[in-house]
User: What shape does this take?
Amino acid sequence: MSKVVVFDHPLIQHKLSIMRDKNTGTKEFRELLSEIAMLMVFEVTRDLETKEVEVETPITTCKCRMLSGKKLGIVPILRAGLGMVDGVINLVPAARVGHIGLYRDPKSLEPVEYYCKLPEDSVNRELLILDPMLATGGSASAAINFIKQRGCHHMRLVNLIAAPEGIARIQKDHPDVDIYVAALDDHLNDHGYIVPGLGDAGDRLFGTK
Assistant: This one.
């Protein structure tokens, strides 16, 4: 079973509270999402492998630690996941960025991939899949499945807010993918929105509502 990590850092919780407020505007919402993504990935990457190196300082030489494991890749789920990319890139500027887009077929109601472009060496990278909301988990599960079909098997899911239903779906479909969230909310309403949530993250991010 994959692990679920809920971050309770005061800065993350403070910024998330402002994002939840219905009166928070698009500009501030966008800035806060980027900031929280950066704070979350700081914690998500805590277990990255390092190696000892020798560095010459202006004074002398010393033993230091540098990254040595798998390189990172970032895969936002379109469109709301785009709002998390800049925050992660600011922290890990060498990370490669892919994109995956899905839509729901109106007849079968199943997720359909309409776009997927990953870095050429994705199979050798630790991928962070980004999406602010994990509601039913259907889109995230499908995105992970499509990425796995391309030979990638080292990935983590990073969400701002999750519902228990979404967590259960990912753990059932992808028990090898750990989940990192800033908040685990109560439930989904009849329209599939997370309660209390923050509304439609994509609309609030891009000002389309």
